[in-house]
Amino acid sequence: MRMNKKVLTLAGVALTAMSLAACGNNDKNKASGDLNVTLKANPVTLDPAKTIETPSSSMQTQSFEGLLKYDKNNKVVLGEAASQPKVTNDGKTWTFTLKKGLKWSNGDPVTAQDYVASMRHWADPKTKSQAADRVADLENYEQVSKGQAPTSALGVKALGKDKVQFTFSKKLPTVNVRNNFASLKPVNHRVLSKEGSKYGSTSDKAVYNGPYKVVNWTGGSDDNWSYVKNNQYYGKKNVHMNKVNVQVTKDNNTAQNLFKSGKVQETSVTADYVKGNKNNKELHTSLMATQYYLYFNGKNDLTKNENFRQAVNYAFDNNQLAKKVLQDGSVGATGWVPKGDMKNPKNGQDFAEEAGHLQKQNKKKAQDYWKATQKDLGKKNMTLNLLADNTDDQKQVAEYLQSTLQKQFKGLKVEVTTLPHAQHVSRDFAGKFELNLTDWNSDVPDASDFLSLLKTGNKVNFTNNTDQKLDDLLNQANDGTKSASERYKLLQEANKQVHTNADGVPLYTAAQAHLVSKHVTGLNYGPFNTVAQYQYAQWKK
Amino acid sequence: MRKYIIKRLLMMVLTLFIVATLTFFLMKMIPGSPLGNTMKLSKAQQLAVEKQYGLNKPVWQQYLSYMTGVLHGNFGMSYQYNSTTVASLIGHRVGPSILISFQALVLGVIVGILLGCVGALKKGTWADATSSTLAVIGISFPSFILAILLQYYLGFKLGWFPVASWDGFPSTILPTIALSAVPMAQVSRFVRTEMVEVLNSDYILLAKAKGLSVPQVVFHHALKNSIIPALTLIGPLAVTLITGSMVVENIFSVPGIGELFINSVLANDYPVIMGLTMFYCLLLCGILLLTDVVYGLVDPRILSKEKGEH
């Protein structure tokens, strides 16, 4: 009978545990207290110089602030800078003055030296920064990053305690520099030199100058931590949520269940959810500065054929692709540059809208070009391979492209190869593809960033095609001598040239989707600042 | 026995060495760079970072320097989490994985034994059919489906358990139940088959003839011999649970080790791939050795056979 007693005891323990666990609250109507949110993946670091992925970027957005910052509506405004920077006539030197009385969370004053230390740390080859593109335009960056010059040679210096001067190697478009300054964060130079390579590897190995302090983050393998209001932050009066708790939730269904049960008030969701919940008022979709393209390999007989490239350019209905296939808030591309990217400096109009509908389906023209292709190559039947990422949405897009091409072009067979992203990228660089479904994500509101994808010598011009006219237009636009409106005109011309040449097909501008509780207000997501800023969140009254 | 264990330990070292070497060279054959931002880095920037990591050296040199590090207990730094050592990454994540796997194993084995006993004692009745059906469902029903159902009904709809979190015992209950289905099913099938055989043996007949009650016959005499074969299952089951719990971990937001492995392979994070492969290998060898030793202790016939051999 002893065994029976044990079994009964075990059953009793299990039942007690179940009833204890059942004591959870239902927080569906939570409208006060801590804000609870999820992140899709683990952040890697609190060191801005080492950050290349969204989760770390999200964590730093809450806890650090640069000279400029994004406001509630994602406009670039003054951050720690007391006033707008003084820019020299040649546009190369930018001088900022810091606000008075700025402090780090440990009570240290924020000084110009902290900005200098951050830039030097970024460019130092020992940092192994993969985000070096952010500081690569500073004077002497190249020599410093190769270890051929000391970090002190970098184009940044402190002019006293509250003035910091940046010198760039060439004149850059003002809007690009301002956007970059909203992303460049300082480091407390004392803490950096104390922690060395361990700086930012846990929340204890960094101090914060932003709206929140990161608390209880024990490093890249931690799934739970909090942001606690930073009482040293100059704008603390406008920070409404005292504490934000973060839980890494990798599974989409779990994130939705946590949101629906009221356990979290903000979470990101995927296309599957968006498709079935379009009328949900708590669902927010926003466009990102990410455009998807279909590239042609310029070294393949079929894909280098201009008639074929034109045929494919007229084959797709991008609107249908976005609205019927993706259904996640993405919009069909009307041209090479996505909507919401660059603005006309004269009238504030959107670059893509002013360019007009350059990318349109025309089945008749597509057919004519296809017939001309068959004639050019002297073949009726051809097979092509389409390379894509192996994520669900990319597989769906690839299948749509495959079926459209096969339906419209009799004799063409399209095979799809999907690979994990890292392997896909290695095939891009090796030129091992025929058709390539790929994307570009920009950090600056500048059409040049997208148009340069097809420039000769750009290492991400995977088409391998060269177009002298396009190169000339882009070189002129970026030579540092043009006024903003002259430059804008040149970029519009370059855009037309890209469409004439048809080296790739712009397909759609990607969107992201979030669920935000109806009790929370103030969370907005922008194309360049895609993460939530909890300093602006507050409970609805 | 001691000689046997020492021999097995030496074999473990050799196995580890072979696994590490094979993994290192296979891993280097995976296309793609371990750097996550190659699209945005200029060629010079990329070369500079690769040089810092020693990735510009020939593969055999990289192998030698890695193995030298391992011999000194240094498994390197993760490329993805580039301020974190591999040992600390694994160290932080292995605890939750082992905890839910251990709980699932204990729950699965206990319930499995009970179901197996019921099946054997009530052979041919509805109770036997139910126990068999449960076992078939346990084996054929993927644990992640069970996890989703448990989360939806017990977590979300009824609110009895946390939907997903890692915050004390209650948050381990649903992942434990989801993972326990397979061990429960396998153990119950083994125990039932063995128990049916044992119940027909002479010594059970003798026990019954002596007038012992059914529970005494079952728990004191029949069960002990019936669970020995199930012991052989426990080792491999434990390893399968620890290494195979990734999807369940993801569903319940358990900060475990499974996803780290998949991500490290997808991101070509060489030091983490190596560290985890060697960890899994060590775990498998260790558990198999332990199972063999325990098996020998429970069934002395095996021990004497080993003694005879060695």
UniProtKB/TrEMBL annotation, chain B:
Transmembrane spans: 98-121, 133-153, 230-252, 272-298
Bilayer topology annotation: Multi-pass membrane protein
Compartment(s) of residence: Cell membrane
Taxonomic superkingdom: Bacteria
Keyword Transmembrane: yes
Keywords from the UniProt entry: Cell membrane, Membrane, Transmembrane, Transmembrane helix, Transport
All copies of domain ABC transmembrane type-1, residue ranges: 94-291
Gene3D superfamilies listed in its UniProt record: MetI-like
PANTHER family: DIPEPTIDE TRANSPORT SYSTEM PERMEASE PROTEIN DPPB-RELATED (PTHR43163:SF6)
Family per similarity comment: Belongs to the binding-protein-dependent transport system permease family.
Protein name: ABC transporter permease
Native source organism of the sequence: Limosilactobacillus avistercoris
